[in-house]
């Protein structure tokens, strides 16, 4: 299978190109910091006043979501900067000439690369996420409410972003495509926070900012559902007023819905299809 | 059947016309040279021929299939003008990858032989990223040859090579020719083209300026003689061999049949002409090319 050849090639590239090492270093730093932070939190900060188990769960939930956001950011940066060069870079350097003169379709190459990147991003999320769960459990005794769903959604978020990176990669230069993808990812996240505040305040037009951006680029919607799966189900009850509910950036009030999941799948297929179409028409 | 058949190829980049109605073909087992000045459209023609660039108009049949069908490229080997291979792979891994992509069944030993053929046998396990430019071009040559192609397309295969490498490429081309593999060679080294090509297509500003076999393009032989005491009778005898140009005591007879030279010389001597030198020659492809391109301007 030629698709798998390209998937394997993409993984080999990631492994040999120091991206893996850079990611590993960043991840270890983040995990170590979080271990230190959680440990300090439990032993020092609150040692005068013992935390109730409810308070601990609330704090652990938020902190876990914060660190998971860090992880998803690393995954996003890593895969976006892998996805960027993969098409644009190979076209620019001339590597694509020899490859695409072989009896293969351009869409096959693209799909293979996509699969490889998804495997890479997903693998990273699962490994680093599990390590983080263990750290949180060891320091605070908290275990996420639905870790499998959460990690799957986070991996899906990475897949969505790298698909976008791949589309840009067929259109613009290698670096620009990575930067634009990550920029849009950040913008959607901010729009999500803004929309959450709007929802909390009952301001529909502000809330619409979040909803629309989550439909245009499903990364933030998936991220919020992933948070929901990580946090303690009772966490949000800890806050009194509805005003803060939606607006809190590291707690979520929205579980994943099948409709949104279906949209995210369709979005990904659509964008990948568009990338294939653009690449097919492109002169090398 | 043709290895490639192209008709009416046209390509514009924005306002600039790169290729403007180019038609040509390469027969199976034939070696075709593609010549022309910088920017003539040679590389663009090659890329359209391989489906790497979409022509605005025109049609290409590659090894009997329309070029839109990926399988048309199954038995084609290509060395691009801009040769770059995955720097994170070793030379051997690059060849393995291309064998797999070509869907060819090439045993390990044969792959090694191909690397040896281009002089990279002892660098097989080194990363391509550490290769010199010429070594990368040699690897590109191996990539073009490894999957048992029936048609090899080389876009300036010796641009980065040392003189030994150039001689190697010439030998490789001759051995391909011997095995009946069709070749399209784009090169600025006219000597190289003259040595190996059966036919030549000359492109200029996106159009075919001239094409034909070497004999057709270069015309017949010529003969340069340095003579003394040339009588009108002797001059008449010279003219019977072919059109004569005279420049002092240097006489040039063009388009003559080489077989008539001994008789001609014997007759001239019999007519009392003193013959100082007799030099058979041929219009070089280089002169002819400059001539064609000059008359186009
Ligand atoms: N990607 C491109 N974008 C814009 N113009 C291009 C592109 N590729 C080629 N051209 C133009 O098309 C024309 C032909 O270029 P091409 O590369 O085919 O020439 P060439 O005959 O191979 O020249 P050389 O001998 O220098 O390799 C040139 O005028 C060039 O500027
Ligand atoms: Mg060229």
UniProtKB/TrEMBL annotation, chain A:
UniProt keyword terms in alphabetical order: Membrane, Transmembrane, Transmembrane helix
PANTHER family with a match to the protein in the record: ABC TRANSPORTER PERMEASE (PTHR43471), SLL1107 PROTEIN (PTHR43471:SF10)
Signal peptide bounds: none
Alphabetized Pfam families for the sequence: ABC2_membrane_2
Lineage summary: Bacteria, Bacillati, Actinomycetota, Actinomycetes, Streptosporangiales
Protein name (Swiss-Prot/TrEMBL): ABC transporter permease subunit
Gene Ontology MF annotations: ABC-type transporter activity
One GO CC annotation: plasma membrane
Membrane spanning residue stretches: 20-39, 59-83, 114-138, 150-172, 179-198, 258-279
């Amino acid at each position: 299978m030629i698709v798998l050849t390209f998937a394997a090639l993409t993984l080999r590239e990631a492994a040999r190109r120091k991206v893996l090492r850079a990611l590993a270093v960043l991840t270890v730093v983040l995990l170590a910091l979080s271990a230190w932070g959680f440990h300090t939190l439990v032993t020092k900060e609150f040692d005068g006043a013992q935390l109730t188990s409810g308070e601990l769960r609330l704090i652990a939930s938020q902190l876990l979501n914060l660190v998971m956001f860090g992880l998803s950011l690393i995954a996003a940066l890593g895969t976006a900067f892998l996805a960027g060069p993969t098409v644009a870079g190979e076209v620019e350097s001339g590597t694509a000439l020899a490859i695409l003169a072989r009896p293969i379709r351009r869409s096959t190459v693209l799909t293979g690369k996509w699969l490889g990147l998804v495997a890479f991003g997903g693998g990273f999320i699962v490994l680093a996420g599990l390590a983080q769960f263990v750290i949180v459990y060891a320091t605070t005794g908290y275990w996420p409410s639905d870790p499998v769903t959460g990690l799957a959604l986070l991996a899906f978020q990475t897949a969505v972003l790298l698909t976008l990176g791949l589309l840009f990669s067929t259109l613009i230069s290698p670096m620009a495509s990575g930067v634009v993808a990550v920029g849009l990812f950040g913008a959607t996240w901010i729009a999500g926070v803004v929309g959450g505040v709007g929802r909390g305040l009952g301001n529909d037009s502000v809330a619409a900012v979040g909803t629309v951006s989550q439909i245009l680029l499903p990364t933030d919607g998936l991220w919020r559902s992933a948070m929901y799966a990580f946090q303690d189900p009772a966490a949000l009850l800890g806050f009194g007023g509805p005003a803060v509910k939606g607006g809190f950036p590291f707690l979520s009030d929205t579980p994943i819905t099948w409709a949104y999941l279906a949209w995210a799948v369709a979005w990904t297929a659509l964008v990948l299809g568009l990338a294939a179409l653009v690449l097919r028409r492109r002169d090398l | 059947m043709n290895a490639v058949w192209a008709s009416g190829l046209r390509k514009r980049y924005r306002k600039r016309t790169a290729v403007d109605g180019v038609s040509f073909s390469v027969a199976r087992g034939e070696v075709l040279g593609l010549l022309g000045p910088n920017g003539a459209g040679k590389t663009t023609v090659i890329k359209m021929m391989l489906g790497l660039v979409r022509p605005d108009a025109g049609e290409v049949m590659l090894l009997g299939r329309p070029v839109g069908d990926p399988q048309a490229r199954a038995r084609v080997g290509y060395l691009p003008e801009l040769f770059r291979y995955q720097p994170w792979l070793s030379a051997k891994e690059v060849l393995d990858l291309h064998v797999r992509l070509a869907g060819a069944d090439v045993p390990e030993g044969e792959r090694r032989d191909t690397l040896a053929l281009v002089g990279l046998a002892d660098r097989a396990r080194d990363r391509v990223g550490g290769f010199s430019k010429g070594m990368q071009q040699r690897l590109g040559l191996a990539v073009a040859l490894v999957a048992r192609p029936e048609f090899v397309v080389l876009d300036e295969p010796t641009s980065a090579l040392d003189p030994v490498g150039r001689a190697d490429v010439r030998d490789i081309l001759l051995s391909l020719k011997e095995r009946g593999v069709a070749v399209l060679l784009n090169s600025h080294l006219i000597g190289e083209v003259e040595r190996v090509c059966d036919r030549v297509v000359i492109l200029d500003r996106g159009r075919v300026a001239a094409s034909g076999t070497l004999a057709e393009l270069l015309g017949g032989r010529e003969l340069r003689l340095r003579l003394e005491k040339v009588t009108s009778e002797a001059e008449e005898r010279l003219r019977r061999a072919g059109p004569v140009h005279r420049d002092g005591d240097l006489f040039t007879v063009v388009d003559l049949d080489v077989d008539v030279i001994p008789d001609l010389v014997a007759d001239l001597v019999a007519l009392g002409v003193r013959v100082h030198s007799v030099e058979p020659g041929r219009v070089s492809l280089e002169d002819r090319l400059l001539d064609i391109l000059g008359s186009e301007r």
